[in-house]
Amino acid sequence: MKGRLRGITVSVVGGDHRAVFVAEEFLKEGAQVRLAGHEVAVAGVQAAGTVEAALRGANAVVFPLPGVSDDGYVATPGKPLSLSEEDLAVLSVGTPVFTGFARKFLREVANRRGLKLVEIAERDDFAILNAIPSAEGAIQLAMEHLPVTIHGSAAFVLGFGRVGMTLARMLTALGARTTVVARDAAQRARAMEMGCRVADFGRLPVLAGEADVIFNTVPALVLTAKILKATRPDVLIIDLATRPGGTDFDAAQRLKRQAILAPSLPGRVAPKTAGRIFAQVVADLLVEEKGLALAVGP
């Protein structure tokens, strides 16, 4: 049901190109929307010249998925925005502040100012849907860099969380010979049920030499120099984990393995879809907080 945010002012501060579509989605929901850190003009959205102007009088604030840096900067397509405690002080106590990941600076200031900090990156309703553009973007990268088709290729997926599961399903549907490497026995059982070959990480040094492409989703060092040395010289590695990734990139360079760190793919390959997903989750939370009725579709 559109219009469920009528009477609410939402400020969208910084972010990549997803932010424009986040703002548009809030506008469709009936909110008054302010956008800071973007030069793109969006009909109906108020462009805020400063962070303070964006925040003053806002009923809710949305920072980008990567959050605010520890030194108080918010990434934008151009020059980063500087965010100070004085800027946040214009918000009323209890104002919800949404972000993907909250780092120390934002956590501490929100706590001191009595703001309601909400992290959505690990929420299932967001992460499961956001895994779709992540997986599609990873496969797009593989198609651009592999000398062979995905169909028939030996594809390894390290980790079987939300992105890993979606990626393995898509690769299998495209005809890849997909191997899922996961620590958890239940995850391996689920991957096997999906038609994938499975292994634990102890087997990776033995199996890695088979791979045409390795997709890593684990935010810890799993592709060590030892494992990289066991791969073929023409292997392609696409690391989807949050920086610094789960690959020893120095070792990959020494060994002349093609390794690509590719976090935040949704914002690069499908900003409109990714922005809509982000905005809809935030909108649902705002509706829930205000005690408004959610629409029930057919």
TrEMBL record:
Organism taxonomic ancestry: Bacteria, Bacillati, Bacillota, Clostridia, Thermoanaerobacterales
Alphabetical list of Gene3D superfamilies matching this protein: NAD(P)-binding Rossmann-like Domain (3.40.50.720)
Pfam families tied to this protein: 2-Hacid_dh_C, DpaA_N
Residues spanning the signal sequence: none
One GO MF term attached to the UniProt entry: NAD binding
NCBIfam families membership: PRK08306.1 (NF006162)
UniProt protein name: Dipicolinate synthase subunit A
Source organism (scientific name): Thermodesulfitimonas autotrophica
Dipicolinate synthase subunit A N-terminal domain residues: 10-121
Domain D-isomer specific 2-hydroxyacid dehydrogenase NAD-binding: 146-231
